[in-house]
Amino acid sequence: MISWLKQHCSIQSFIKTRTAIIVLIVGFVIWFGAAFAMDQKQIFLPGQTSEGHHLFEASCSSCHEGFKPVSNDNCNRCHEAELAADVHGVKKFRDPRWAVLLEDIDVLTCTACHNEHVQMFGRGVHLHPDLCMACHEGIIQGDLASHDGFTPDGCWTAGCHNFHDHRSISTAFLTQNLDQPFMLPTPEVPELGVEVTLDRAPTPDLDREFLGGGT
Amino acid sequence: MKLMPVLFCGVMLWLGLSAIAPLTPIAIASPITQAQLDEITTQWQDSTHALADVNCSSCHQNEETQEFVQAPGYESCQSCHEPETETFLLGKHGIRLQEGLSPLTPALARLPMHAEASDRPLNCNTCHDVHALQTRPAAVDACLTCHNDTHSNNYKNSPHATLFSPAGELPRPDASAVTCATCHLPRQTLGETDRVFVNHNNTYTLLPRDRMVSDVCMNCHGLEHSYNSIFDDDLVEANFDQRPTQEMETFELIRAFEQQRSSQNAPETPPE
After folding, report:
1. What is the rounded CA–CA span in Å between residue B186 and residue A42?
2. pLDDT, tens only, B27-43
3. Fewer Cβ within 10 Å of end Cβ, chain A: N or C?
């Protein structure tokens, strides 16, 4: 009697487990299917999206082509202006003196430094603040007396250097503009010009359409 | 017992559906009254659009199909205001539209926003009154309709705000006014040309901060004042209500470097 019960119970529990697994799988399929069908793909996000990108995080294909790694082309689709004067761009690394450094860190690939969906240090897409040390460690270790002993994460966090765009922070630019007064001699923003072609407004060329009259 | 799998499926389906955020309400354009039409016509007649021969049909009629368009989208503005629209689509305000999503609403923002504005969809005409065509309200008032953070709310305490109030009248802020837009949607020259356009990519000058220094601050202020201000988080919060007190070490280093260079007269490789 007891052995019969034991056998019966184990069969029952096997059936229960099997049912539970099937139901679980069906459930997940419905859940993911619903997310795709209703265009709510945020549920697939592996972590917090950066400040700049979170507003369109539901659009996976904005950055991802299937499961391929995010390419520079994906980034450049929006960030061309920011990289217009990239001092760490392709041109710099054509020089064999610097090309060898790409073996330490491939800075010509955006994702070598910038990581999305991981919370690290907020500046655009997340990146480690001490990445400069991959090539420039000597600067804080005696190669440049004035920078000896500086912290490895301070190059840009302290507001002194900009990896991509030197235009307003290079030594030359800063030297050239030292000791300027609080207000420059002619403080003003560019004037926005607007060209008009008529002396007076023409007759409105649509009317009834706005009142629901159709075209 | 047979009910269990059914119940389980039900729960999973409910979980799936709960992952779906409430859909953003989209303003559906409906016909307007004669009085509203008259008011709009009056506004347009006094606007630069009218004097530039931009008539109703220029925006409210599809050029190819001749079909009437009650509520034109950004594409309509783009046909004349190309760089403005392109840059708008690359900034936070317009990126959702560029990526084929519903327009941005303040509800989606991580920055503090006014609760009553949370469902306002962001299109060109959210900030620009497209018929009266005055950019003065778009320069400050439009921003403060949604933005509710300390920096934005402190604008009124800034000397910049006093420059804006008396400076010129409608339709657009003159060159001596400093508004939200002056710094965040700055007037720039287009490429190598002399043509001035308004860069509507609101994130372009935001970070890194040194980009704002050269592109915006140094239109009026000296270099050191600009850097010392913009890298002082408290002063940014206070919207630059006083002169900076910090002196960034970077300028000490530059001075020392210059002194060394002129005394040795032998150039050393500058820190990059």
Report:
1. 33
2. 445 678 888 888 999 99
3. N
